[in-house]
Structure formats: structure tokens, C-alpha cells
């Protein structure tokens, strides 16, 4: 019978980083750390607790003897896990456990107890049926078949059978009646199990299959009791490796992001280490051989996790730097953060950087970044980019320096110029570049539009960082300061808002119920989507909501607080849609229930005040939507990949395609603007503070597109400073639109593909240029202004004139035509740049606002445009 033990409070165990004592021997460092080990960890063999949060192996159903599968996150045996999956999808796993019936595994340990001996006198073989051994039972059957009786047979039996040798499987008490593939003998029970195992795995009865059977859980269960499932012996390993594994087990269960490892997986991993005669987990090449030879993915994952956890004991910062690899743990830091809350377990191998001075700079850069305070540390992806840049620089120096670049004092501006030329050739001709690892790839890596800029920027950042800390020689400064600057390419088009009908489909109650039905783990998929749809946050901000993210402000106004990670703004509060607020209240209670169950053992030992203090701390530290897998402490939110996978299947079932979560921001922005919401409210709701970004969202409104383009004014070719940007939308949409109104003429009217700012012009009767805005003999009118809506018209006119000038009969005629358009160049160029900065250029290029057939002094077009109309 398995009895549930008290839950472990792994977070309460302090972590000692052995690498902080580089002067101590390995044995002394291990001795210091081992003082914190749990009692079960120092035993031989190790007896893992049945329901340990990380190494648990017993079914959570009381008195159940079923084995827990390594991939079951509910800690249930196979049969109970299947029963739970077939139960009510919304049923709580704790309710199922309390009502489930235990499973009796009567075959566990059947080989440990010998059957009674044969009832025939002087026969010491085991009885199989009727109290007789197999040979005597067969003899009796033949006698009965001939018509005899058992009494007569017993009276006349004279054969005295010799005793059989015991089953060759260690621990089995039965007679070895049958041969094994390796020449040994096994009992009939194990032979029957062996044949059943072969049928299950679909193999042939050869030596390889026999070796696999000897390590199977079926055989292990037959030779031990229920508690044997939780045992793992390290006696076959060298003493140093045993110490490393015990430390790794101790360290691994304290990591927030950890994989679950069963004792069976640990036993298989120990066997693999023993077969390959591994002396230390720090032997990277040998460990890679072990991982490659392991066919079981769970064993590979377990060994990788243990090697990662033991790294702070097996290595120091000095040894890591000498060997050319870096891991934050060797300098006492946490792993670099990642966008999907994953933890990189492999170290950065820097041996591809062949120049020792450059490799040391890269290693010290990684150390400095790892030791930055929380919130300022770069992501693992950023560190990877910096190291890739260093590898590319190393490859360039090897190829284009006679000395291979080993002497930094000889590098100068000429080498920086050569690097720019070579860099451009690599990018233009798609020449393969050096890379950080030797992992086989389908295609050789080349510089892309993005990596061309990122890797060069990484080189500058690495060398400048080292220069600022006086780690480089003064002679290298000329090379560092002459490194080329590669500009960032324009970003991809931003998502457009959803159509009204499409949005209504995605928030319809019936469709939300379908999304809830697909949420088998009850992580809150429907709640996440509704928050995203109605609150307009970024999907990362929605998934990262904390448990205490909602509340009431003022006169019972629901509010939601989220972290705007893009702008590094913490706890940004916005009004919350009431139905969303009510759903999040229910989600809060579900998450609190999960946390109370997970930390029930710890909470039960606290006083009411202390318990309340712990639960209050959850409000700011625990996620509202904890993921259901690989999250034993409930500290990680649902990943974007997991949400998009389920959400995408739901969209597909609704017939919706090509939709991105970010489109909800554009949808909310345009909806607010179209309904007259002030810009300040829109910026608050969307969590951005850029006027240009606000104009971008407004630009997607087809009804107001022309209006926004007309709010960009450039001085015409007849003004004092042609091309000067006179007006931007932000100046009209700002907090003080009256100030903008005072600076411009209130009676501007549309004229020949532009605006006239001369007040007395009404219907053209008082126009000093006789309505010739751009074709007067003395040049364009000084009151003529171009808007963003007129850009494409005038660019087409200019290009047509240039084309006409190419066919002029003589150079004088050609120069005359070109001189007429020379003042327009600065106007059109500046207007194009302004529209590009505001995100309106694409729409301006698509717009054909007016045609040349319109009479711009027709009463329809002669109506004055008030600034208030432009402001909307």
C-alpha cells in the first residue's frame, strides 16, 4: 500500500552555488552542499518519496498500486489517467482522486515468493497444479488418459526427479525450467512475461530484445514490491559521478522551470552512464555519446536536465573560461530569460571564436549581462545574436588577416573598411558564414536582411562594451570606432483591424462555448481570448496577467492592470469591460484553488496571519493563467505557442483564416476613434504613447483615411522654404487643438491638387493668380500648400515632365522643362518622408483622391475647410 507523504516545500530550501568557492576542492564543495540534502537523497539505494513534486512515482489515488507514466502531468497511473480523461472535461482532478477506486496490482513481486513444493515424496520442485510439479502433473495426466486413477498413480510412482536450478533472474525464487536467449534459465512465469513483452514491443526473441527486457518495468515489478519503483541505485558508478548525480537531483527539484523525472528514468540513465564508463557529467563529448545512444527520449531529457543542474558543482568560472564555454550558473546567475519562459540548458560554446582575445571578450560580455539586475538582463535570443556576431568577426579575421587576427593591436580603420566590403559581398552573394555551433543544418547559414544588421550591431556592442571597461588595448580603438553602421530595414506592415462581422463571430457566446470545450486542461483559453478581444493588449501581456490583475476603482469602475513589456511599463491600468471583469473574477478563484492545492502542505503549517500573507503575495507573483504542463510550482504562464495552437484550431473550425491576435489592437483603436474617443483614452487603452502610432491606427479607417492624409501639409514650391512640413495630425489631435487652430488659416479651400491659404479667395473671384496656382508666368503661388493626399498626383506629373524633357529637341528646351520642376523636388521628397514617418505613405500611394477633370473652383469644392472639421 502506498501512503501519501507530506508535500515538499522545495522553494524553502536555500540554494548553495558551489561555483562561488573556486578555491575549494570538489570533495569539499560537495561536502558543504550535501549538508542540505534530504534524508532520502543520501541513502543507497535512493528511495524517492512516492508523491514528490518532481520525482514522484506513485498514483495519487489512495492505496492504488498502479505505476505513474512519465508523461502524465496529473500523477495518475495509466488506468486512472484514462478514466479521468473520459470523465467530465470540467471535472477537477482533485474531485476525481477523492472518488476513484484504487487498483490492485497483484502481479507486483510475484517472483519473490516460492510456490509450495510438489506433493510427491522426495520431489523438491515447485508445484504448479493439483499440488504437483509440471513433470508429475504431465505424468498423472497421461495415466488418467489411459484409464487409471490418481490414487493408483500415486501408489505406483517411483520416479525421483532432481531439483531444478533457480531462475537466473536475480531475486526470483522460482525454478528455472526454461532456457533464455543468453543460455540461462528462467521460470515459467517469467518466460510467459517475456513472451508477452515481445508481443507488446513487436520484437524478435534475440539477445538485443532480451537485454531490453531485463531493464523493463514489467520485470522490475515482478522482482520487487511497490516501493521498489521508487528506488534507484548509484553503486555501479564512480564515487565522483555519484556525488554529481545526488547534487543534480537536489538542485534540479529547486528549479522553477524543470522537467519531471521518474525513478525509472533515473535508473535507465544510470545504466547508460555505467555502460559508457562515464566518470563525470562535465565530460561534454562523452555525455553527447551517451545521449546519442539512448533510444528513449525521456532518458535523454533526464540526463540533459541532470547535467545542467550539476554544472554549478562540476565547473567554475575559471575552468569554463579556459575551456571556452559560458553558462550563467557558473557565475552565480539565473539563466537568461526567454520570450516563451523556456530555460536554455546547453551552454554557449565559444570555441568557434579562434582568437583568444576575442573569445575572452565574448565570455566576459556574457558574464556582465548575466549579472545585470532582473528586468535589465537581455534575453537568450539577444545573447545568441551577440555571440553569432563575434563568430562572424572571428571568421573574417581568419580569412583576411595574415596573422589570423590573433593580435588586436594590429587592427585598424583599414580592417574595418575591409570588413564592410566583405560583409556586403557575403550578403549580396549569399556566401555561407561562420556559425556558433556545429549542429547539422539543411542549408548553410547566410546573412539575411535582418542578420546583416543585427550581427554587425552585435560586433559594435561587444567591442564598445569591452572598450568602456578598459579590456581592450588602445590600439584597437581605431578599429572599433570605424566599424560600419547598417541601418534597420523598415518593419513589416502592421496588422489591419477585423471586419465587424468577423469580430462578432469570434466573440459570439456559442463560439466561446466551443473554445471552452476545447480547453481540456482548463487553462482559460476562452478567458484569454476575450481579454485580448475587448482590452486590446498584446498577447504576451494578456498571457502574463498576474493573479491580482483586476479590481474596482472609484465609483465601482472595473479596472485591469497589465505589464506593458514592450515599453517596460509595470502595472499599467485601463478600464475593464464588465463581462471580461466578471469572467476574470471566476478565473481568479480557479487559479487560487490550484495554488492552495499545490502549496497545501506549506500552508497547513502556517498561522492564519502567515497564510494570509503568503496568499497576498500570490496576487503579484503568480500568473492568472498558469500552464498545465512542465509547471509543477504553477509559476509559469501559458506560453504563446500553446495558446496559438489551440486558438488556431478553434479559428479553423469557425472558418476564419489569416487572423492574428495583434489585430484586436487595431480593431479596438479604430472602433474607439470612430466613436469619438479622445486620443488620450485610446493611448491609455492600447498601452502605447506615440502620436504616430495613434495616427497609424486611425489610418486604417477607410472613412477617415483621406482626412488624415489631408492633415499632413508641406509648403508649396512658391513659398519661402519649399517642402517645410507645416502641419502633422498629432498637432491637431493633441491636447490643445486650439493652439494649432490659431497658427493656420481657418478658410483654407481645396484647389488644384492642394490647398489655398489665401483667405479672400471664395469661388476664385479674388484670386491674385487668376486661379493659376502652379502655372502662373511668375511661378507657383506662395499660398499654395500640398497635402499628403496630393503626393501621388504631383509625383506622376513630375515624372511625366522628366520623361518629356528627355525627348526635347535641344538642350535649352530640356533645361527649361527641368528648371520648372526643380523647386518641386524638395517639396515632394519632404512630404514623402513625413508620410513615411507617420505610417501613411502606403495609403497615400494607393489613393487617387481627385482627377484632373474636376473644377476645383466649383461651389462644391469652394466650401471652406474649418480646422475643426479636419480635427473631427
Give a brief rundown of this model.
This protein is mainly alpha-helical and about 850 residues long. The protein is built from 37 helices and 14 strands.
Reconstruct the topology from this structure.
Elements: H1 26-34, E1 46-47, H2 78-86, H3 93-99, H4 134-145, H5 150-156, E2 178-179, E3 185-186, H6 188-201, H7 207-214, H8 217-222, E4 231-232, H9 239-252, H10 263-275, H11 284-293, H12 297-309, H13 311-314, H14 317-323, E5 325-326, E6 348-349, H15 356-370, H16 380-400, H17 413-429, H18 449-468, H19 477-481, H20 500-506, H21 509-518, H22 525-535, H23 539-543, E7 550-553, E8 557-564, E9 569-575, H24 578-598, H25 600-603, H26 608-621, H27 640-653, H28 663-674, H29 679-686, H30 691-699, H31 705-710, E10 713-715, E11 725-727, H32 729-732, H33 737-743, E12 749-751, E13 754-756, E14 784-787, H34 791-806, H35 811-837, H36 841-846, H37 867-871
Antiparallel strand pairs: 1-4, 2-3, 5-6, 7-8, 8-9, 10-11, 10-14, 12-13, 13-14
InterPro entries: DNA_brk_join_enz, Integrase-like_cat_sf, Integrase_catalytic
GO biological process, one term: DNA integration
Domain Tyr recombinase: 493-714
Structural descriptors:
mainly alpha; 14 strands; 5 domains; five-stranded antiparallel sheet; 5% strand; elongated; disordered N terminus; three-stranded antiparallel sheet; 37 helices; 46% helix; single chain; 872 residues
Overall description:
- With 872 residues, the chain is mainly alpha-helical.
- The protein folds into five domains: 10-77 and 234-314, no CATH class; 134-224, no CATH class; 323-481, no CATH class; 500-685, hpI Integrase, Chain A (Orthogonal Bundle), CATH 1.10.443; 701-871, no CATH class.
- Helix content is 46%, strand content 5%.
- It is built from 37 helices and 14 strands.
- The strands form five sheets. A five-stranded antiparallel sheet has the order 11-10-14-13-12. It has a three-stranded antiparallel sheet with strand order 7-8-9, with helices on one face.
- A hairpin with a 2-residue loop joins strand 12 (749-751) and strand 13 (754-756).
- Helix 10 (263-275) packs across helix 12, helix 22 runs antiparallel to helix 24 and helix 28 packs antiparallel against helix 29 (679-686).
- Mean pLDDT is 79; it is low at 1-22, 742-747 and 849-867.
Amino acid at each position: 500500500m502506498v501512503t501519501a507523504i507530506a508535500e515538499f516545500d522545495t522553494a524553502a530550501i536555500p540554494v548553495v552555488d558551489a561555483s562561488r568557492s573556486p578555491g575549494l576542492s570538489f570533495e569539499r564543495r560537495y561536502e558543504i552542499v550535501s549538508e542540505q540534502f534530504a534524508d532520502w537523497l543520501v541513502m543507497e539505494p535512493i528511495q524517492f518519496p512516492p508523491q514528490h513534486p518532481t520525482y514522484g512515482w506513485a498514483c495519487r489515488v489512495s492505496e492504488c498500486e498502479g505505476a505513474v507514466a512519465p508523461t502524465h502531468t496529473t500523477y495518475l497511473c495509466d488506468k486512472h489517467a484514462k478514466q479521468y480523461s473520459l470523465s467530465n472535461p470540467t471535472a477537477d482532478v482533485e474531485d476525481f482522486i477523492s472518488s476513484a477506486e484504487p487498483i490492485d496490482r497483484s502481479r507486483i513481486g510475484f517472483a519473490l515468493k516460492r510456490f509450495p513444493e510438489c506433493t510427491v515424496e522426495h520431489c523438491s520442485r515447485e508445484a504448479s497444479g493439483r499440488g504437483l510439479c509440471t513433470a508429475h502433473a504431465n505424468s498423472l495426466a497421461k495415466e488418467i488418459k489411459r484409464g487409471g486413477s490418481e490414487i493408483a498413480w500415486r501408489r505406483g510412482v517411483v520416479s525421483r526427479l532432481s531439483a531444478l536450478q533457480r531462475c537466473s533472474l536475480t531475486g526470483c525464487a522460482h525454478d528455472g525450467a526454461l532456457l533464455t536467449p543468453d543460455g540461462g534459465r528462467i521460470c515459467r512465469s517469467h518466460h510467459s512475461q517475456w513472451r508477452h513483452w515481445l508481443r507488446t514491443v513487436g520484437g524478435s526473441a534475440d539477445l538485443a530484445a532480451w537485454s531490453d527486457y531485463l531493464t523493463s518495468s514489467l520485470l522490475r515489478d515482478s522482482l520487487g514490491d511497490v516501493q521498489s519503483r521508487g528506488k534507484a541505485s548509484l553503486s555501479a558508478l564512480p564515487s565522483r559521478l555519484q556525488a554529481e548525480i545526488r547534487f543534480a537531483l537536489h538542485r534540479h527539484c529547486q528549479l522553477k522551470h524543470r522537467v519531471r523525472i521518474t525513478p525509472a528514468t533515473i535508473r535507465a540513465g544510470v545504466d547508460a552512464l555505467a555502460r559508457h564508463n562515464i566518470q563525470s557529467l562535465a565530460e561534454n563529448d562523452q555525455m553527447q555519446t551517451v545521449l546519442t545512444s539512448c533510444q528513449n527520449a525521456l532518458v535523454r531529457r533526464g540526463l540533459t536536465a541532470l547535467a545542467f543542474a550539476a554544472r554549478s558543482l562540476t565547473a567554475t568560472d575559471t575552468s569554463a573560461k579556459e575551456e571556452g564555454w559560458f553558462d550563467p550558473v557558473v557565475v552565480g546567475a539565473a539563466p537568461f530569460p526567454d520570450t516563451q519562459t523556456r530555460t536554455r540548458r546547453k551552454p554557449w560554446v565559444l570555441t568557434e571564436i579562434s582568437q583568444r582575445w576575442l573569445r575572452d571578450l565574448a565570455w566576459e560580455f556574457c558574464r556582465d549581462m548575466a549579472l545585470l539586475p532582473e528586468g535589465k538582463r537581455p534575453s537568450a535570443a539577444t545573447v545568441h545574436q551577440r555571440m553569432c556576431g563575434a563568430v562572424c568577426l572571428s571568421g573574417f579575421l581568419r580569412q583576411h588577416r595574415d596573422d589570423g587576427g590573433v593580435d588586436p593591436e594590429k587592427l585598424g580603420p583599414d580592417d574595418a573598411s575591409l570588413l564592410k566590403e566583405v560583409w556586403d559581398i557575403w550578403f549580396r552573394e549569399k556566401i555561407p558564414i561562420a556559425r556558433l555551433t556545429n549542429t547539422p543544418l539543411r542549408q548553410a547559414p547566410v546573412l539575411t536582411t535582418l542578420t546583416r544588421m543585427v550581427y554587425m550591431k552585435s560586433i559594435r556592442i561587444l567591442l564598445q562594451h569591452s572598450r568602456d571597461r578598459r579590456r581592450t588595448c588602445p590600439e584597437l580603438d581605431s578599429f572599433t570606432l570605424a566599424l560600419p553602421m547598417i541601418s534597420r530595414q523598415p518593419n513589416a506592415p502592421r496588422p489591419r483591424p477585423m471586419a465587424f462581422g468577423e469580430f462578432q463571430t469570434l466573440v459570439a457566446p456559442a463560439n466561446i462555448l466551443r473554445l471552452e470545450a476545447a480547453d481540456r486542461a482548463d487553462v482559460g483559453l476562452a478567458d484569454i481570448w476575450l481579454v485580448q478581444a475587448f482590452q486590446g493588449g498584446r498577447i504576451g501581456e494578456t498571457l502574463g496577467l498576474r493573479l491580482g490583475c483586476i479590481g474596482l476603482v472609484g465609483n465601482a469602475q472595473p479596472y485591469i492592470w497589465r505589464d506593458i513589456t514592450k515599453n517596460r511599463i509595470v502595472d499599467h491600468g485601463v478600464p475593464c469591460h464588465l463581462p471580461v471583469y466578471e469572467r476574470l473574477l471566476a478565473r481568479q478563484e480557479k487559479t487560487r484553488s490550484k495554488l492552495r492545492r499545490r502549496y497545501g502542505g506549506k500552508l497547513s503549517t502556517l498561522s492564519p496571519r502567515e497564510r494570509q500573507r503568503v496568499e497576498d503575495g500570490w496576487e503579484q507573483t503568480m500568473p492568472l493563467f498558469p500552464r498545465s504542463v512542465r509547471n509543477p510550482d504553477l509559476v509559469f504562464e501559458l506560453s504563446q505557442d500553446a495558446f496559438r495552437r489551440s486558438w488556431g484550431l478553434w479559428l479553423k473550425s469557425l472558418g476564419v483564416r489569416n487572423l492574428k491576435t495583434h489585430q484586436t489592437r487595431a480593431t479596438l483603436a479604430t472602433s474607439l476613434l470612430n466613436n469619438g474617443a479622445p486620443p488620450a483614452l485610446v493611448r491609455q487603452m492600447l498601452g502605447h504613447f506615440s502620436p504616430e502610432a495613434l495616427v497609424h491606427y486611425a489610418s486604417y479607417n477607410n472613412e477617415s483615411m483621406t482626412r488624415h492624409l489631408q492633415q499632413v501639409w508641406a509648403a508649396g514650391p512658391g513659398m519661402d522654404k519649399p517642402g517645410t512640413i507645416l502641419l502633422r495630425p498629432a498637432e491637431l489631435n493633441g491636447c490643445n487643438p486650439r493652439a494649432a487652430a490659431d497658427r493656420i488659416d481657418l478658410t483654407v479651400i481645396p484647389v488644384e491638387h492642394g490647398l489655398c491659404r489665401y483667405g479672400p479667395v471664395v469661388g476664385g473671384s479674388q484670386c491674385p493668380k487668376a486661379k493659376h496656382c502652379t502655372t502662373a508666368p511668375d511661378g507657383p503661388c506662395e499660398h499654395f500648400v500640398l497635402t499628403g493626399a496630393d503626393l501621388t498626383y504631383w509625383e506622376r506629373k513630375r515624372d511625366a515632365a522628366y520623361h518629356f524633357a528627355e525627348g526635347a529637341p535641344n538642350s535649352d528646351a530640356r533645361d527649361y522643362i527641368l528648371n520648372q520642376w526643380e523647386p518641386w523636388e524638395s517639396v515632394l521628397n519632404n512630404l514623402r518622408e513625413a508620410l513615411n514617418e507617420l505610417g501613411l505613405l502606403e495609403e497615400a500611394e494607393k489613393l487617387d483622391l481627385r482627377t484632373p477633370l474636376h473644377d476645383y473652383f466649383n461651389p462644391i469644392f469652394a466650401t471652406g475647410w474649418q480646422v475643426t472639421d479636419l480635427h473631427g
